[in-house]
Amino acid sequence: MRIALIGYGKMGKEIEKIALERSHSISFRINKENANEILQISPENTDVAIEFTSPESAFENLKNLLTQRVSVVCGTTGWLAKQKEIENLALQNQVAFLYASNFSLGVNLFFRLNELLAQMMNKYPNYKLLLEEIHHTEKKDAPSGTSITLAQGIMENYPAKTAWVNEFSEKDNLVSIVSKREPNVPGTHIIRYQNEIDCIEIRHEAYSRKGFALGAVLAAEFITGKKGIFSMKDVLQLG
Ligand SMILES: NC(=O)C1=CN([C@@H]2O[C@H](COP(=O)(O)OP(=O)(O)OC[C@H]3O[C@@H](n4cnc5c(N)ncnc54)[C@H](O)[C@@H]3O)[C@@H](O)[C@H]2O)C=CC1
Ligand SMILES: O=C(O)C1=N[C@H](C(=O)O)C[C@H](O)C1
């Protein structure tokens, strides 16, 4: 498979390692400095593009790639207000598009665990809920994309929770997401239900970026040759 890497930073480089190990080749390495080269990417030279850039650049990159009829796996967080527009563009151009806030198998298992726990805790409202995310100090967006997915999973299974906020709050209808930034943390997410008697906590801690990169390459392998909108649930078949 010929992969174009859009964003050759921490994630782009990690993805390249896994892609080469799995016998794929890299058709383009695009960064801020050579961003215009994205216009040269086409189905003639590339099977799939993997986009990990920044919240400010993702929408424009995705628009260009999909209009040029190139299927895309996107891991950039913080641009989702325009997700529907991008999905429609993929459908119009008859290519595949897959976005995930987190590509690691562990986090996708954790998403399911979070939903099951929310379903149970829905019956015990005297437990206060807190969602905490810790990431490296270079991260540009807050809260993390993963914590937004976790908050959505809670709201779908705990109807009294109707919105999330990115601050500490004890309001019963809110999912409170607290974001912390510390050096060299690849990504940690904690969900805690607590009252004066005890505490129930689930936690996912990434030890490196390898799981994110492997998941992104598996997603690229999965969508190659397909058309439509996909998610990591399709790739990992977690049920
Ligand atoms: N979904 C997931 O599993 C994961 C998502 N992420 C997300 O991926 C994104 C990138 O993360 P990192 O690689 O850690 O960031 P990074 O800052 O190390 O790398 C980003 C790269 O994008 C490039 N870039 C910026 N503007 C560009 C443009 N217009 N065109 C092409 N390249 C451009 C920069 O030159 C830089 O090399 C972030 O939004 C982060 O939240 C990160 C890890 C896992
Ligand atoms: O910026 C990161 O590094 C990460 N971003 C993703 C997010 O916002 O959830 C995924 C992972 O936690 C690492």
Automatic annotation (TrEMBL):
Gene Ontology biological-process annotations: diaminopimelate biosynthetic process; lysine biosynthetic process via diaminopimelate
Domain Dihydrodipicolinate reductase N-terminal positions: 1-103
Annotated catalysed reactions: (S)-2,3,4,5-tetrahydrodipicolinate + NAD(+) + H2O = (2S,4S)-4-hydroxy-2,3,4,5-tetrahydrodipicolinate + NADH + H(+); (S)-2,3,4,5-tetrahydrodipicolinate + NADP(+) + H2O = (2S,4S)-4-hydroxy-2,3,4,5-tetrahydrodipicolinate + NADPH + H(+)
One Pfam family recorded for the sequence: DapB_N
Keyword set, alphabetical order: Amino-acid biosynthesis, Diaminopimelate biosynthesis, Lysine biosynthesis, NAD, NADP, Oxidoreductase
EC number(s) on file: 1.17.1.8
GO CC annotation: cytosol
InterPro entries attached to this UniProt entry: DapB_C, DapB_N, DHDPR_bac, NAD(P)-bd_dom_sf
Ranges of residues in domain Dihydrodipicolinate reductase C-terminal: 106-236
GO MF terms held by the record: 4-hydroxy-tetrahydrodipicolinate reductase
Pathway annotation: Amino-acid biosynthesis; L-lysine biosynthesis via DAP pathway; (S)-tetrahydrodipicolinate from L-aspartate: step 4/4
Family affiliation: Belongs to the DapB family.
Protein's name in the database: 4-hydroxy-tetrahydrodipicolinate reductase
Protein species of origin: Raineya orbicola
